[in-house]
Amino acid sequence: MNRRLAALLVPVLLAAAGCTAGAEEKEPGPSARQKAAANRPSPFQDCAALDTPPASAPSASPSGGEALPELTLECFTGGAPVALRDVRGPAVINVWASWCPPCRKELPAFQRLSDRAAGQFRVVGVNSGDSREAAQSMGEDFGVRFPVLIDQGEGLKRELNRKGIPLTVLVDAQGHVRHIDSTGALDDARLAELVRQHLGVTVPA
């Protein structure tokens, strides 16, 4: 009787074990998802050219203000870390994160600004306090192509004495901060106005 019962139970137990194993294999954990995201090509440009002036930068631009903070950040695409003080302007630096609703609202406008810059200035992103996977997904969703630096420790925000994001930092050709905007989501017209006022460059709104 016991042998007969055991013979009936063994296939049931094996089947149950197989279902569990199959479920575990089909349900990847966070590490597997992160690995898959890391293997996707980055939507962002590399940072190799950030230490050279934009190709068509105006010969003269407004100057003054404080220098960019002494902070070194990793480039999203890899390569050598970037010292912010080595970034050659004019530049518009957008500090953003995927979990920040105003950042999500304004990020496409920064890509359009980058498209209209025509080599007169550059747009650089700083992804702040975010996960790499979330940042990459947001870049893919919004078609962001300009270079992005990683600031998971939110060092730039602290160095600028700002508590929240988004932040827009306008930097002149000498690497001096001309203006920091923290008013919320910016649109095309407001970005064009800021660039004209603080960098002396006119772009279509």
Characterize the structure shown.
The protein has 205 residues and is an alpha/beta fold. Helices cover 39% and strands 16% of the residues. The protein contains six helices and seven strands. The protein has helices at 2-26, 30-39, 101-116, 132-142, 155-159, 188-199; strands at residues 72-75, 82-83, 91-96, 122-128, 148-151, 167-171, 177-181. A seven-stranded mixed sheet has the order 2-1-5-4-3-6-7. Helix 4 links the parallel strand 4 and strand 5 (148-151). Helix 2 crosses helix 4. The longest helix has 25 residues, at 2-26. Mean pLDDT is 84; it is low at 5-28.
Question: Brief overview, please?
Answer:
The protein is of the alpha/beta class.
Keywords:
205 residues; alpha/beta; seven-stranded mixed β-sheet; 6 helices; 7 strands
SSE layout and pairings?
Layout lengths: L1 H25 L3 H10 L32 E4 L6 E2 L7 E6 L4 H16 L5 E7 L3 H11 L5 E4 L3 H5 L7 E5 L5 E5 L6 H12 L6
Parallel strand pairs: 3-4, 4-5
Antiparallel strand pairs: 1-2, 1-5, 3-6, 6-7
Helix pairs in contact: 2-4
